[in-house]
Predict the 3D structure of the following.
Amino acid sequence: MALNKLTILIELPGENLQFSESSEDSRIVAMFNPKSLSVTRQVQWKSQDASKRDSPELQFTTADPATLSVELFFDTYDTPNPAKESVFKYTSKLLALTSVTGDKHRPPVCQIQWGGEAIIFQGVLQGLDTQYTMFLDNGTPVRATVKCTFTQWRSNQKDLKKQNLMSSDVVKVWTVRRGQTLASIAALEYRDPRYWRQIAEANGIDDPLALQPGTTLLLPALRLSTTPNTQANGGAYLAEP
């Protein structure tokens, strides 16, 4: 069974996002496979003010892009060839991933490919730390360790297609217009006017008939499994912590 080496595919020139495994100029093959890969990601949650709640409702606001860190090792000294080539041949291709090229006005997007998992990450090279650790008598570097940090990248169009910002399981803020009632707002937001009680409870409204135009309301997120007649958690219909 042949050894599968980690490969970095480099975005091809052109308007569309395309990659090729056949061109030497559009890929970087690791000389030695890394010992480990590290993927990190952070997600931001914001608490929403709501009356009569010991634990505030949490709303997802955004997520930081994931990062992949990998350490690559290059060695052109420990080879059978008597003439030792410079390790710059390999490290310069990585350095080029941080430079603006072509008509895109930005560094290229990369795909990290390894073994049976195929594409394991897509992103841009955000951090590069190269250490040259061995040199010939004439100063030619022949051994280097490169620490790379890739940041996840996805086009805005593709990212928006993955979202459904109109769903009722997202906390929203609503400004009351003239003639609107809690029942009519619930009908618009939740497709059921009977959910007006959840809006009233989330905003501490004792008299739903005293709703004034311009009032800002917090529209709580609803679990898909709840019904307007459910009286769980003392009448709270928000998602449980």
User: Anything to note?
Assistant: Residues 229-241 have pLDDT under 50 and may be disordered.
